[in-house]
Write a structure and sequence with these properties.
Helix content is 27%, strand content 21%. By secondary structure, it is of the alpha/beta class. Strand 3 and strand 4 form a beta hairpin. The structure holds zinc ion.
Length: 396
Amino acid sequence: MATAAIEEASGKVVIKNIGLLLSGDIDQPILQSDTIVVMDGIITAVGRFKELDTEGAKTTIDVRQTCVAPGLIDSHVHPVFGDWTPRQNQIGWIDSTMNGGVTTMVSAGEVHLPGRPKDIVGLKALAITAQRAFSNFRPGGVKVIAGAPIIEKGMTEHDFEELASAGVTLLGEVGLGSVKAGYEAKEMVAWARKHGIQSTIHTGGPSIPGSGLIDKDVVLEADADVIGHINGGHTSLSEAHVCELCEKSSRAIEIVHNGNERVAIAAAKAALELKCPHRVILGTDGPAGSGVQPLGILRMVALLSSLANIPAELVFCFATGNTARIRNLNCGLIEVGRAADFVFMDRAQHTAGRTLLESVQLGDIPGIGMVMIDGLVRCHRSRNTPPATEIPVIVH
Ligand SMILES: [Zn+2]
């Protein structure tokens, strides 16, 4: 169900009897706490139930010894308007993705808008409109950070200054417009950065007819903040070039569902070998030619944990705290002052794994029992994941 952004405040919420608390922090992925206290959508305390002030809660949730993690962040989506995507003419894809544990999405450009303007005033107007529209309207409660212009030849520093002062914080994938040469992209990325706008570059072969190749030399020269879909979207650079990007650049390594899975595994392994797991972030790149993937982030977590042999608790950080830090979002970590955006999970019924983390390491996705955004329950048992063995209950 689509819901508007402006709603009642959550009041005091106590989340107790947590069996496993994943922090989102790659330096300490598991917390030894069993309770979270929330006030009006913000985490105010994390600790042991007996030591916290849990009196007077408007809502108390008994997690029944299952897992709580920060809401998942999809670092790479292509929204258009509302909860509709013209790419596959699908309605409700964002709400469906919330049922996959995603509480925040970051736009890599509203590129699927039919008749998308490519002149400079038009592309700026679209970005500002998308930014406004998604900050006023949250499908399923999901925070969609949108308004990501596709840069075109002829833009000047003044255009970036104007976008920034209008509230635009992101560039859409560099390379999807007419700016495809490294030297041109580099200048515009630097203007964007100077004015506080974060950039992402398309990496790899053309995504659909009409787009083009961005090779490793262009990625290195442009020096965007995020190496967008380093494993291709869909077509990847060679494994050797992807590993070279991980080594020579210090920018974020974004791995997506809608890319090459073999190279996804290689990129994650390279980041670990280079001792920079904090750079890895996950996205779906949906909606796309491959469709919408409501469980795409969970599927990436299971893929990387099971086939790149990375402990599941670390891979969850790729989809939460790493992305929040790199993208300056006030979510993604279980700590005081952060947004109360959570996904409640348990091992799926009849998985071979004895615990949630073991099940993910064996390649299964977890079952979601509840999703909370800003302290408000957005769904109970997910309609999309396999059923969780245990689910949280609202005790009052
Ligand atoms: Zn792309």
